[in-house]
């Protein structure tokens, strides 16, 4: 093998290592983050009074919830969607003045998004739904 061939083999090996490092950095950059920090677990998303109806706008995992109905019973339908037309993932009934906290391990995957369809009979819902990235 000539010196030129040996040099090319060495350069290709270095290039491969460089590409592998860049690939790992890209994967890490695309991982779930919040405030610039990589999430290692789930993140709470506020729903109900002052909260969001679109809990997550892309694929992920539902890993639980903690909800409180302040004055009247509330029913929350979590849907695999970004609107009220998606398939139901969970239907949660919270009694008046009651709390419902449910962790789900390892979680339920959703592909389109997660929508919180809140039905109240004059009641007020507070709390959060816990979501995580889909890559567990």
Number of distinct beta strands: 10
Cα distance spanning the termini? 46 Å
Helix/strand class = alpha+beta
- Placed side by side, the strands forming the largest sheet appear as 3-10-5-8
**What is the makeup of the main sheet?**
4 strands, antiparallel
Pick out its properties:
136 residues, alpha+beta, 4-stranded antiparallel beta sheet, 21% helix, 46% strand
Offer a concise description of the structure.
The chain has 136 residues and is an alpha+beta fold.
Could you describe the 3D structure shown?
The chain has 136 residues and is of the alpha+beta class. 21% of the residues lie in helices and 46% in strands. The strands form 3 sheets. A 4-stranded antiparallel beta sheet has the order 3-10-5-8, with no helix packed on it. The chain has one helix at 3-30; strands at 33-34, 37-38, 43-46, 54-56, 60-69, 74-80, 87-94, 99-110, 114-120, 125-132.
What are the SSEs and their pairings?
Elements: H1 3-30, E1 33-34, E2 37-38, E3 43-46, E4 54-56, E5 60-69, E6 74-80, E7 87-94, E8 99-110, E9 114-120, E10 125-132
Antiparallel strand pairs: 1-2, 3-10, 4-9, 5-8, 5-10, 6-7, 6-9
């Amino acid at each position: 093998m000539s010196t030129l061939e040996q040099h090319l083999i060495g350069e290709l090996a270095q290039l491969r290592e460089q590409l592998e490092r860049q690939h790992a950095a890209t994967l890490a950059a695309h991982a779930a983050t919040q405030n610039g920090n990589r999430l290692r677990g789930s993140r709470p998303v506020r729903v109900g009074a002052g909260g969001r109806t679109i809990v997550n706008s892309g694929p992920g995992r539902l890993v639980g919830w903690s909800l409180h109905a302040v004055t009247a019973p509330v029913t929350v339908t979590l849907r695999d969607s970004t609107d009220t037309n998606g398939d139901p993932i969970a239907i949660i009934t919270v009694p008046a003045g009651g709390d419902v906290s449910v962790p789900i391990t390892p979680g339920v995957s959703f592909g389109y998004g997660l929508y919180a369809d809140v039905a109240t009979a004059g009641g007020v819902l507070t709390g959060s739904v816990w979501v995580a990235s889909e890559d567990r």
